[in-house]
Design a protein that fits this description.
- The protein is of the alpha+beta class.
- The protein has one domain: Roll (Pnp Oxidase, Chain A).
- 26% of the residues lie in helices and 37% in strands.
- It is globular and about 55 Å long.
Length: 163
């Protein structure tokens, strides 16, 4: 499985666009999952990078986490507000793994409290999903041309320039 660190090393351009857009939207992204009937679901989520790993954590007992429990595949898209994608746009594709490490959960809760004041310290997490990218793409306008970044594990990141 590919880690967040592997992704950022293998796809520096796409990860930079993802990180920039993630920060610009207050950490808001859109998460695509698969419903029980196979149809897609889009849900807002605020993924967090913690201890060099990307986490998809949120309000317990929500349908998006039921979806991931049943089928770990996802697509994570930076929230696009500019139709001209002047600041870029990125998508991550992958799978999640539910990490059952209570010490990690408490370190995460402390970090969350220190960062935004949300106090989940001492609580338990129903699901604690680590994201493992299996691919990524980005769009960026450079010198008036669209540049599409493409990455898969084990391959070099590449850019296709559209004129």
């Amino acid at each position: 499985m590919t880690s967040w660190t592997d992704f950022t090393a293998g796809a520096p351009r796409i990860s930079a666009i993802f990180t920039r857009r993630h920060a610009a939207t207050g950490k808001l992204c859109l998460l695509a999952t698969l419903r029980a009937d196979g149809s897609p679901r889009i849900s807002p989520i605020e993924p967090r990078v913690f201890e060099d790993r990307l986490w998809l954590i949120g309000m317990p007992d929500t349908t998006k986490f039921h979806d991931l429990h049943r089928d770990p595949r996802f697509c994570l898209h930076t929230a696009t507000v500019d139709t001209q994608v002047g600041d870029g746009d990125a998508k991550l594709f992958g799978t999640v793994a539910d990490v059952r490490d209570t010490d990690l959960h408490q370190r995460f809760a402390q970090d969350l409290f220190d960062d935004i004041g949300l106090d989940l310290r001492g609580g338990t997490f129903d699901h604690f999903y680590e994201a493992h990218p299996t691919g990524a793409s980005s769009v960026e306008i450079v010198d008036g041309h669209m540049e599409v970044g493409i990455w898969k594990p084990g391959q070099d990141e590449r850019v296709v320039r559209r004129t």
